[in-house]
Amino acid sequence: MDVLFHKDELGYHQRITEIIHADYDHVYRYLATKQISDWFPQLSFQQIDDVEMLVFDMGEDEPAIQFDILVKQLNQEITFQWDEGVVRIVLEATENGTLLTLEEQMPLNQVLEQTANDFVGWYFQVLNIRTISETGEPAPLDMVDFMALEAETLDVLENL
Description:
Elements: E1 2-8, E2 11-20, H1 24-32, H2 36-39, E3 43-48, E4 51-56, E5 65-73, E6 77-82, E7 85-94, E8 97-106, H3 112-135, H4 143-158
Antiparallel strand pairs: 1-2, 2-8, 3-4, 4-5, 5-6, 6-7, 7-8
């Protein structure tokens, strides 16, 4: 997996690329249909006032958060609001399967620790998309690995 970070006047940016050994239409079903909750249980697509929205629901006492879907091209791309930022996921067919590119942009005014947490969360979700697309089962999340990568990412962002 390749991960790049940069900072500009729009905010902090993360770009992740990963080869998934599965057909892109198979991978796309996990990204843009009800199967999204198979690898990211807190996410779902819901019709709200006749508009399809991406809904993030932590359950319990937390209110669900609705995000606008900005682009949804069949078997190719999904782009959506994510908090105050934007996440774009693009799929391309390759001879080895599917190239997944995730680009996330978060604003400069967001607390940097939250940006690092978001970036690392999407890193692990890309691993999860790859694992479920290739095996049919989501990857387990190791919080020790998550926290270590979050600290590394925060250090990188602080030095951009």
